[in-house]
Amino acid sequence: MTQADPSDQAANAQLLGREFATAIVVFHEAVGRLLGLSAVERKCLDLLQRLGPVTAGAVGEHTGLTTGAVTRMLDRLAKAGYVRRAPDPHDRRKVVVHLLPNERMNALMATAFGPFIEDLGTIMTRYNETETRAILDWASRTTGALIASTRRISGIDP
Q1: Tens of pLDDT, residue by residue, the chain (158 residues)
Q2: Most Cβ neighbours (<10 Å): which of 4, 64, 94, 134?
Q3: What are the φ and ψ backbone dihedral angles of 87, each rounded to 5 degrees?
Q4: Pseudo-torsion of CA 99, 100, 101, 105, nearest 10°?
């Protein structure tokens, strides 16, 4: 990491945040390329893996993407055979997005994420419970700020 004046915590935090965000984006872009997807499309699949079948609106809420962007992304994922849409059994006006089983994707994800998950486990052993709570709090708040910023930039929230 390039550093500003060591006593300038705000500048160092900003620089670290930028470098951290870049590393995340570049990593997920590389993982997406393994599947022939963009980083956002790949992360949408991750969202569906974590949440299970959800409405397109829920995808938008969790990503901060506009309705139009979500629709276009789901069109591409459906065409590529990663998801299918089905009418919501409780509200026929809504569509539920289902992740389709895909052994190739699962194998590629294991190859991409296995070593990364092991590295994260090793890194986290360096921190005590209080430090771990602080790290998780930071990650949670930063995620919320990123989603809010995405929504703001996309014109979803003023």
Answers
A1: 555 566 788 888 889 888 988 998 899 899 999 899 999 999 999 999 999 999 999 999 888 888 899 999 999 999 999 999 999 888 888 889 999 999 999 999 999 999 999 999 999 999 999 999 999 999 999 889 888 888 888 787 65
A2: 64
A3: -60, 140
A4: -70
Q: Are 64 and 156 in contact (CB under 8 A)?
A: yes
Distances from the Cα of 90 to the Cαs of 56, 77, 93, 118, 142, in angstroms?
Answer: 15, 24, 9, 41, 34
Instruction: Give the C-alpha separation, 76 to 20, whole Å.
Output: 28
The whole-model pTM stands at 0.72
